[in-house]
Amino acid sequence: MSDPLFETLRRFAATMTSTFDVHEMLYELCQGVVATLDIAGAGVSVIRDDRLEFVAATDQRVIEMEEVQEEHQAGPCVEAFNSGEIVIVPNISEIDTWPAYRAVARSVGFVSVIGFPLSHNGHRIGSLNVYDTRDREFDHAELEAAGALVDVATAYLVRANELAEAHKLTKQLEAALDSRIVIEQAKGMLSRDHSISVDDAFQLLRAHSQRENMPLREVARAVVHLDLTLST
User: Which of 61, 64, 101, 147 gives the lowest tally of CB atoms within 10 Å of its CB?
Assistant: First the structure.
């Protein structure tokens, strides 16, 4: 079991240093858990708008399992997310909850499932479900191996989110700078064309923006690039 785990961790490391494609990483997580635990399939759901939504799976059978959980918001994935604890179900047919989930499991041939919460420093992100076609009790070493993959994947997701937020902030700052530049250009053009001060030119831009319900930067762009004429 150590070789598949090592190989999966190696691929994770390569993925994290080459790209922050979240879907690719989640698929790698599913594939890695399948190889490490020698199981039938795995899927990941993440939280969005207070609901767990399925995002990655190893095959169509898992997709059906994840979709029924998403539809009913019930199943080991949801329970693991809500409780923050690993949910182990050696035989799905023997439980008396999640009737829709049990029915799909029976139709696709899955017998056992484990739900792992994806959380980091109290911040809950989603859950990983692993499936097998046999009644199975997972031992401590297997749970530890899967937990290691979950921890790496969760750290990746947190880092990816931090980078996305940083990128978003950078884009917002760049947009603010671009707006300032084009507004200054428009002020200069209006000042020159109407022989007015740049402060008065700015008031012209503001007045048109408010009158036409247009963002100030769009009015400025129209003056600079579309020859919009503003009267004093």
Answer: 147
Domain ranges of the chain: 2-166, 168-225
In this structure, the strands spanning 41-48 and 87-89 are unpaired
SS3 130: strand
pTM for this predicted structure? 0.69
Q: What is the distance between the alpha carbons of residues 109 and 107, in angstroms, rounded to a whole number?
A: 6
* pLDDT in the model for residue 14: 67
Residue linked to tokens 């919009």? 228
CATH for 168-225 (1.10.10.10, 2.40.128.130, 3.90.228.20, 1.10.3720.10): 1.10.10.10
Residue 57 phi/psi, 5-degree rounding, is -160, 160
Q: What is the largest CA-CA distance in the chain?
A: 85
What is the pLDDT at residue 169? 62
Architecture of the 2-166 domain = 2-Layer Sandwich (3.30)
**C-alpha torsion angle, residues 18, 23, 28, 34 (rounded to 10):** 170
Q: Which residue type sits at 160?
A: A
State how far the alpha carbon of 201 is from the alpha carbons of 125, 135, 178, 193, 227, in Å. 49, 77, 18, 10, 15
